[in-house]
Amino acid sequence: SFSNLPDAPVDEIFALNHAYVADTDARKVNLGIGVYRTEEDQPWPLSSVRLVEEEMYRQDDPARHEYLAIEGDLTFLDLARDLMFGFSSASSDSENKSKQRIASVQTVSGTGANHVGAAFLAQHFKPKHVWVSTPSWANHQTIWDLQGIERKSYPYFDASTCSFDFNGAITTLESEAAEGDVVLLHACAHNPTGVDPTKEQWKKIAEICQRKRLFPFFDSAYQGFASGSADEDAWAVRYFFNLTSPPMEMCVAQSFSKNFGLYGQRAGAFHLVTNGANPSEAPLVRKNLCHIIRGEYSMGPRYGSSIVKRILGDSALRAQWQDDLTIMSSRIKRMRQALYDELVRLKTPGSWEHVINQIGMFSYTGLTVKQVLELKSEFHIYLLKSGRASISGLTEKNVAYVAQAIDTVVRR
Ligand code: LMR
């Protein structure tokens, strides 16, 4: 019988979303789950995605529901890899050599990529510890705990300045992390804080990883969505990848949920980067990844990855996708500014510059648990207990209401 099972933790993000949907109050505002919403507070199938869907519908390809290979769609994987690592389609010899360092497989979006990577490393690399930032996306903890790898945390957020705790992070990694430990890093738009290292700070983190032989594991969930530029948002990953003497082994979990608006379609990829010393290593890694994937779910899903493949492989669609990224990232920046302006206008106690300085989907507002709970119960405004607010839930219509509510709970 299962009656003595331990109670399982509830996922805060999805539980909160459920509560929001069930709330019948007309004033309700969802700043919880990280999903893009339009100015009308609606989900948005990207215009580039729509074009591809219409094309797929017209083509009526009888093979559209066939199985993919276990590793996934190879063309999709090449395009996903090139987007992440910045390879051009007409590759030079040195680029081809770089590509051969990488073993890529298709995954069940970002969670699946993190999972497959964690499962592979747990089995074949056997790290003693995984270092996760405090705070981090809660699912990182779950994913690594389920693999039985001991989790350690490095400081990430300086609450007094609402900025990246660079000294805390590097001091901890320098003095406590040991060779062979995995260090989980957010490629850009850190979730939940919206605070990223500067390029100089990334260089120092890379130097520590390289010198101490720590194993970097990047989670890239917001490439192009954060700054509007896929190249800019991949800067840290590419910097680590291009380091020489010696080149580093590393992993990248790549999600297409946010940057293609394909949340429920679960499009993603996992890349394991070898050090390049042995050209037969990457194919062997991929074979082992396939073994895990086959045993767990056979292969990644087809629909979302076909859309991503079509867009990334066509220059006109790709340009349209770039416009979509600009639309999403600039609306979020506008809403950051609008919230900030309202709080300043209301003279809400405290400093709110961090709302405009943070990047990506979220703002780590600095609101306390008590204030967050009051926002929910009295104002029907939903955000995570940590104070993380998903900025895309703000619109021109509700931002004054939200600012007024924040002002009210902050003044108590
Ligand atoms: C979030 O952090 O809200 C999103 O990434 C959704 C998720 O899967 O948790």
TrEMBL record:
Its cofactor is pyridoxal 5'-phosphate. Keywords: Aminotransferase, Pyridoxal phosphate, Transferase. It comes from the Eukaryota. GO terms for cellular component: cytosol. Its EC number is 2.6.1.1. Residues 27-406 form the Aminotransferase class I/classII large domain. GO terms for biological process: aspartate biosynthetic process. Transmembrane segments: none annotated. It catalyses: L-aspartate + 2-oxoglutarate = oxaloacetate + L-glutamate. GO terms for molecular function: L-aspartate:2-oxoglutarate aminotransferase activity; pyridoxal phosphate binding. In eukaryotes there are cytoplasmic, mitochondrial and chloroplastic isozymes. Belongs to the class-I pyridoxal-phosphate-dependent aminotransferase family. Homodimer. This is Aspartate aminotransferase. It comes from Talaromyces atroroseus. The lineage of its organism: Eukaryota, Fungi, Dikarya, Ascomycota, Pezizomycotina.
